[in-house]
Amino acid sequence: MFALIKKLLQRNKKYYPKEECGIVGIFNVEEAANFAYLGIYALQHRGQESAGIVTANEFSLHRYAGMGKVTEVFKESKLKQLIGNSAIAHNRYSTTGASFLRNAQPIRMESRFGSIALAHNGNLSNAWSIRQQLENEGSIFQSTIDTEIIFHLMAKSKEKDLSQALMNALSMVKGAYSLVMLTKDTLYAARDPNGFRPLVIGKKDDGIVFASETCALDIMDAEYVRDVEPGEFIKVTKSGVESLFPFPKSKNNMCIFEYIYFARPDSLIFKKSVYDIRYKLGQVLSREFAVEADMVISVPDSSTIAALGYSAESGIPYHMGLIRSHYIGRTFIEPSQKIRDFGAKLKYNSITSVVKGKRIIVVDDSIMRGTTQRKIIKMLRKAGAKEIHIRISSPPTMFPCYFGIDIPTKRELIAATHTIEEIHKYLQVDSLAYISHEGMLAAAGDEGDHCSACFTGNYPINVEDNQKSEYQNQKMLFDEYGIEENS
Amino acid sequence: MFALIKKLLQRNKKYYPKEECGIVGIFNVEEAANFAYLGIYALQHRGQESAGIVTANEFSLHRYAGMGKVTEVFKESKLKQLIGNSAIAHNRYSTTGASFLRNAQPIRMESRFGSIALAHNGNLSNAWSIRQQLENEGSIFQSTIDTEIIFHLMAKSKEKDLSQALMNALSMVKGAYSLVMLTKDTLYAARDPNGFRPLVIGKKDDGIVFASETCALDIMDAEYVRDVEPGEFIKVTKSGVESLFPFPKSKNNMCIFEYIYFARPDSLIFKKSVYDIRYKLGQVLSREFAVEADMVISVPDSSTIAALGYSAESGIPYHMGLIRSHYIGRTFIEPSQKIRDFGAKLKYNSITSVVKGKRIIVVDDSIMRGTTQRKIIKMLRKAGAKEIHIRISSPPTMFPCYFGIDIPTKRELIAATHTIEEIHKYLQVDSLAYISHEGMLAAAGDEGDHCSACFTGNYPINVEDNQKSEYQNQKMLFDEYGIEENS
Amino acid sequence: MFALIKKLLQRNKKYYPKEECGIVGIFNVEEAANFAYLGIYALQHRGQESAGIVTANEFSLHRYAGMGKVTEVFKESKLKQLIGNSAIAHNRYSTTGASFLRNAQPIRMESRFGSIALAHNGNLSNAWSIRQQLENEGSIFQSTIDTEIIFHLMAKSKEKDLSQALMNALSMVKGAYSLVMLTKDTLYAARDPNGFRPLVIGKKDDGIVFASETCALDIMDAEYVRDVEPGEFIKVTKSGVESLFPFPKSKNNMCIFEYIYFARPDSLIFKKSVYDIRYKLGQVLSREFAVEADMVISVPDSSTIAALGYSAESGIPYHMGLIRSHYIGRTFIEPSQKIRDFGAKLKYNSITSVVKGKRIIVVDDSIMRGTTQRKIIKMLRKAGAKEIHIRISSPPTMFPCYFGIDIPTKRELIAATHTIEEIHKYLQVDSLAYISHEGMLAAAGDEGDHCSACFTGNYPINVEDNQKSEYQNQKMLFDEYGIEENS
Amino acid sequence: MFALIKKLLQRNKKYYPKEECGIVGIFNVEEAANFAYLGIYALQHRGQESAGIVTANEFSLHRYAGMGKVTEVFKESKLKQLIGNSAIAHNRYSTTGASFLRNAQPIRMESRFGSIALAHNGNLSNAWSIRQQLENEGSIFQSTIDTEIIFHLMAKSKEKDLSQALMNALSMVKGAYSLVMLTKDTLYAARDPNGFRPLVIGKKDDGIVFASETCALDIMDAEYVRDVEPGEFIKVTKSGVESLFPFPKSKNNMCIFEYIYFARPDSLIFKKSVYDIRYKLGQVLSREFAVEADMVISVPDSSTIAALGYSAESGIPYHMGLIRSHYIGRTFIEPSQKIRDFGAKLKYNSITSVVKGKRIIVVDDSIMRGTTQRKIIKMLRKAGAKEIHIRISSPPTMFPCYFGIDIPTKRELIAATHTIEEIHKYLQVDSLAYISHEGMLAAAGDEGDHCSACFTGNYPINVEDNQKSEYQNQKMLFDEYGIEENS
Question: Fewer CB within 10 Å, N- or C-terminus of chain A?
Answer without folding.
Answer: N
